[in-house]
Amino acid sequence: MSVSGSNEKNTVKKFRDVYRLLSESHVEDERVELPEASLDKTPFYLTVGAAAQGNVLMEGPPGHGKTTLSELASSLAGGVPLEAVKQAKMGPSDDEKAGTLHLGKLQEGEEEVLFNKPVFVPDNITDELNRDPPEAQKDLLDQVDRNRLEYRGITAKPPEGAFYATQNPLSEEGTYALPSSMEDRFDVAVNVSFPGHLNKKKADIGSSADLENILEGYSDDFIEIMEDSDKRTNPAEAQEELEDLREEYAEWVEEEAGDEYGLEVSLPTPEDREAAAQQIDEVSLDVRADLFLRYVDYRIRDQAETVGGRATESARLFSSAAAWLTGNDEASKEVVEEIVPNVYSHRVDDQSIIDSVMNEYVELRKPIHKVEKVWRNYNKDKMNKQEASQELERLRDKLDQVADAAGFVDGYLEKMGYGEEGFGV
């Protein structure tokens, strides 16, 4: 085994430990069925979200564990004491989410920005996002997109990480619907519909209180930095010190879990977080998976105007992360099939469109595969333009008759140089 291969396996193992602890701390009846594993849905998406530095929207009624799981995931995967994570969490009551003015300086006639605690942690947790009015939602999501927190024209850059947001049902008083352009900022959405209390019989460490007691330790030094006025004025100066504390914290949790409960747990360090994102970026979709995603994305976007261009990027990111977590260097069609519903569910108003398109692909997979085969043969000079265009026109008619999907083939024909004048040579 190469050194790089060994390091990658070690990084993957650490994130599997994160998933295991989250799974053992939460009752879950929905599963993610991957070729190599059947995993609890919410812990899975939080774990791969952390590894891939993605954006996860958690939906469901209060009391189902959305916030608690987000906090645990951020602490375990981010190397941040749980108490510090809780204090850095944003909520709808936080009028000034990014920062505030230094009152002492203000009294002296000076204006100095003090950034708030979220700037010091890698993962942004925003609770009850849809209790914020639309303008506040947009402002926050714009800042998350840029990985910059801004206050009164001054910006600061938090460590790279994931974004976890929770929202309650729109039937609840005081909630605002996220515009489709805002929902598109989230890679995946997870409906936490089953009560997410701790399964005491299942958990190796006994109860959620036991896990939280371990994770809340070692927090004083971290919080002291987060509350230091000088550090809040210039958060960049504290990053190296905080990275050292995050690494020490991960080691301390491992020791505590071993000493108190006899568990072998290895948690990601800041270096592991960076390595995981890089490794996931190198995982590709295999040919069948890529073709499936391109077809499904084309057909869903053709029927749902609310779907933006980020959807296919989100599907690729989380499919690659799922493959990486299960030890594969390519994501198969089966993996992408499992990820797709959570990528599009919050982007599509009519959920039946997703199911219909995926079922449609099953019926049309043979002609769709032939379209791709013709295109490959044409590019390899195994077919000339006339032969390729004639075969594509035949397949185009077949797709059009079954599913009004001629446009999928038109894209191939256009790449061959055909336009409004016709598809023949």
Q: How many strands, which pairing sense, and closed or not: the largest β-sheet?
A: 4 strands, parallel
Q: Please count the beta strands (DSSP E, at least 2 residues each).
A: 12
Q: Helix coverage percent of residues?
A: 55-70%
Q: Kindly name the structural category.
A: alpha/beta
Quote the beta fraction. 5-15%
Q: Name the shape in a single word.
A: globular
Average pLDDT confidence is: 87
**Secondary-structure element string:** HEEHEHHEHEEHEEEHEHHHHHEHHEHHHH
Question: Strands of the largest sheet, in order across it?
Answer: 6-9-3-10
Give the uncertain stretches in residue-range form: 197-207, 420-425
Q: State the separation between the terminal residues, measured CA to CA.
A: 53 Å
Give a concise summary.
The chain is 55% helix and 10% strand. With 425 residues, it is an alpha/beta fold.
Comma- or semicolon-separated keywords:
425 residues, four-stranded parallel beta sheet, 12 strands, 10% strand, disordered C terminus
